[in-house]
Amino acid sequence: MIKQEIMDILHRARINGWLMEPEAKRVFALAGLPVPRFAWAADLQESLQHAARIGYPLVAKVVSPAVVHKSEVDGVGVGIADESQLRTFYERVSGLPGFAGLLIEEMAAGMELIAGAKLDFQFGLIILLGIGGISVEVYDDVAIRMAPICPADVEMMLRELKGEKLLSGFRGKPAVNREKLVRVLVDFAALVQEMVPYIASIDLNPLLCSGEECIIADARIMLGEVFVRTGGPDTSFVR
Amino acid sequence: MNLAPMLAPKTLAVIGVSAGNDRHPANVIFSKNQLRYPLATYAVNVKGGLLDGEEVFSSVSAIPTAIDLAVIAVRSAYVPAVLADCISARVKSAIIISGGFSESGHDELQDKLVSMATQADFPFIGPNCLGIYSPGVVDTFFLPAERMVQPAAGDVALVSQSGGVLVDLLVKFAVEGVGISSAVSIGNKALIRELQLLEFFEADPRTRVIAFYVEGFARDEGRAFVRKAARSRKPVIVLKAGKTDAGSRAVASHTASLAGDYRVFSAVLAQHGIIEARNELELVSFCEALSCYPETVIKGRVGIISGSGGHGAMAVDVCVSSGLIVPRFGDVVQQTLRQTLSDNIRAIASVANPVDLTGSAAENDFIAAVEAFCTIPDIDCILLLMLPYLPGISSDLGARLGKVFRRHGKPLVAYVPHIEKYRMLIDGFELNRVPVASSIESAVHMTRVLGRGRQ
């Protein structure tokens, strides 16, 4: 069963057709998936307060229903070192269309992967795992499975990736924590299985994986057309 | 729904024959079944009369026998009434040849047929299809018999969303000597679809391999199909058309743009152990190989025998790029192999794998090499590239090698150029259930797919 709090967030997002990053992260946090410590600040004052609590250096991102791809409008600040840098960043992005505040977030590091889910017309819910980041479409290195998936499926998906070597400690880099990666994927797949009547697709991109952890550094949830239009579940896919 | 009367009918009614047009689809179907098939065939037209001296019944209910299968070839507007007749006359199934339904925007007319049939638990195939060709059983294709190229009876069931593609595939099956149990054109697949036919052929004792040509599944339909196919004891092969996404859709999420329709299709087939043929040639090769060895599972280590170094080298290239392994034999194996060869070639043959027996090889050298390969544990499949024009070889070689698999359990795949002159050599292999390819590449496709049979 989906938690009522998650359903409330989904309903509130119908007006935009998709969940902005702090909304999506709240959903994943509620479902017990790993996200960085974050806060959604409405203005500069709140931004500075949250930043002081989370600690510099940090990540700041523009929140706007009009901005789906934040990096395309230079709306992501990574490694913001102090108050003055945060002020400068705020000044710059607060003029972007639809500006609805800043996401203030702790820094996370690791190899950039992408995990995703999509309601496929012919096969229903599918889960995707690949080499991610903003160049995801250039590498085009992904493995796809029809849901539901089990840990063994995720292992097979990892073996299918051309870039698998990068995950297991390539050229002195530490290997990613495979156990945690598998866990995140399986938990994510289980959550989206419940969300099938409400969504069209979901990106966790990047999913940052290091030797210690796998954490959802950015996320986007696109809502299903029937849910957006009617507020009710789309029951045309068998679960 | 019980599909047995539809796929193996004893009695057939052809509804919509024309009194004046011999080329009318219904007339062609009536005539070929009446003259060439062992089932009782009846012509139906509301006006009655005679057709080629046979009584034309005014309706299906006027026929004095119980009808297993009705072929409906009347104009679309009349189809619902004819279908109602069939149902009330306790006909057991129908094939609706007529077009003019959802393919031309008349969804409501098609929905009407589906709801009538569902209510009466009455199976029908189509509309807008060719129906069924089953060698020696029934043929509802409206193509004149003299124009069709028909494969022999065999054990591949072929189901196609396109009638045109199906007929063309049958030509290729015939040319390559692949026999079929049934070929079914499902057209608009309004009621009976891939899933039900998969279930039927899974249980059909005449079928060992089930192949599909699919253009697309309906919403969420693919899910049930792949789940069923994953549990099938028989190999399931799918050729998907429409691999390129039409136009660039504006998609906001990376996942949606990375996971395009075909990519998902292909990945989901692989996930469920369904064999994907990338093109028609692969489909035919896969069907031939798996109908000979449906339960053989190999690890993909190939031993190659030829009478020409170039053929061996080309085969190795295709094998390696297809993920197969061609292991080089060790000294002991090479020595043993060499000892089995005739004096004539013992010194000049290459025996490291690929094995090149040279153009001086005699027939017994090929036999000896294949027999020796059967005992070499480094390989689990034998690829034999036959050059039938070599002076030392006779047309008997195919039949002489035909029992290798049954004796030793190691599958053999042969390449022989497919021209009439070499027919007896090819038949020697094929009649003993050794697959014969018409190109080196197809022979490698056949070998590759052997790793994909069901245990």
Short description:
With 239 residues, chain A is α+β, with helices and mostly antiparallel strands. Helices cover 35% and strands 26% of the residues of chain A. The longest helix of chain A is centred in the C-terminal third of the chain and has 18 residues, at 178-195.
Mean pLDDT of chain A: 94
Structural class of chain B: alpha/beta
The tally of strands of chain A reads 11
Tell me the overall shape of chain B: elongated
Number of DSSP helical runs of chain A: 9
Got a strand count of chain B? 19
Low-pLDDT runs of chain B: none
Radius of gyration based on Cα positions of chain B: 25 Å
**Rg from alpha-carbon coordinates of chain A:** 18 Å
- Give the spatial strand order of the biggest sheet of chain B: 3-4-2-1-5-6-7
Tell me the CATH superfamily of the largest domain in chain A: ATP-grasp fold, B domain
Q: Main beta sheet of chain A, described?
A: 7 strands, antiparallel
Using the 3D structure, state the CATH architecture of the largest domain in chain A.
2-Layer Sandwich
Question: And the CATH topology of the largest domain in chain A?
Answer: D-amino Acid Aminotransferase, Chain A, domain 1
* Share in β-strands of chain A: 25-35%
Termini separation of chain B comes to: 29 Å
Described by strand count, sense and barrel closure, the largest sheet of chain B is: 7 strands, mixed
Oligomer: heterodimer
